[in-house]
């Protein structure tokens, strides 16, 4: 136990220094990207970095609670009016995941110089869905897939999206477009304590029900329902959301171990190429949706991007780009992926077998 605490403390210190360096360099999302890049670099060099599960859960709890504060009654009405765009995004994500998986299978399971020995159809299939990275790895193991390839594909996809989109938006000047952000502005100590208790209860319920991302979605649901009912107890301090971003950045960075670097370079190259193509296709869909809905293209890009729910929601929050819309698009897409992907695999491939 003391060794784990020492590794956790050392990783936190390195992440903090990386975040401060990114602040000086004026990079986007310094409190998440700095720790992510710093811990990833050290992990791939073989140093024993460590992400403590309790800290990661607390980070997701804080971010979920903070995002829920944006869902005022007016914002909820706006999001509900866009139900058709949310449904279209779900269908698009499922179709894109299927196409990505079929391409990975064609490139790496067939004969040729890119062939990967013993690659199964389950591996390429469960490596491709957009979202639910940890859940896809667990399901893939049940079907005899090579879980290290599945996990590496999802980790690399999330990393690339988390890095490319914020830097691209900063370069293009796409930030601060939400000039009047909904939700509370003032931190009230008793209200903050009550909000913490309410959102902790939401997390506990999700954990008991064994739902995916319970610390994020439980806090989000509790905070969202409170705000949507017209009550605003307190804002969440900036330093607390910064700390949450830091531990989430660490949890992403430690996935990239030394073995990751040597893991089927051809597979990782294909995943990187496929991720960039999916980002371009999602940006095209976002452009069409923005034209129809008259929403800003940058916000719709974040909502349709093939990134992780927490990372894209944090990006929207920090860059002030349609936080409720981005959150709603990702939450509903995640729910659909969790409900549809496994039954679809059984229907498409088990039946044939």
Compute the average pLDDT. Answer: 86
Spans of at least 5 consecutive residues whose pLDDT stays below 50 are none
> What is the CATH topology descriptor?
Na+/H+ antiporter like fold
> How far apart are the first and last residues' alpha carbons, in Å?
47 Å
Mass-distribution shape: globular
Oligomer class = single chain
Query: Largest sheet, if any?
Result: none
Rounded radius of gyration (Å): 20 Å
What CATH architecture would you give? Up-down Bundle
Overview of this protein structure:
- The chain has 353 residues and is mainly alpha-helical.
- The protein has one domain: Na+/H+ antiporter like fold (Up-down Bundle), CATH 1.20.1530.
- 75% of the residues lie in helices and 0% in strands.
- The chain has helices spanning 2-25, 30-44, 53-68, 73-81, 83-108, 121-126, 133-142, 147-172, 189-208, 214-228, 238-253, 258-261, 265-293, 297-304, 309-319, 323-350.
- Helix 1 crosses helix 2 and helix 7 runs antiparallel to helix 8.
- The longest helix is centred in the last third of the chain and has 29 residues, at 265-293.
- It starts with a helix and ends with a helix.
- The model has no long low-confidence stretch (mean pLDDT 86).
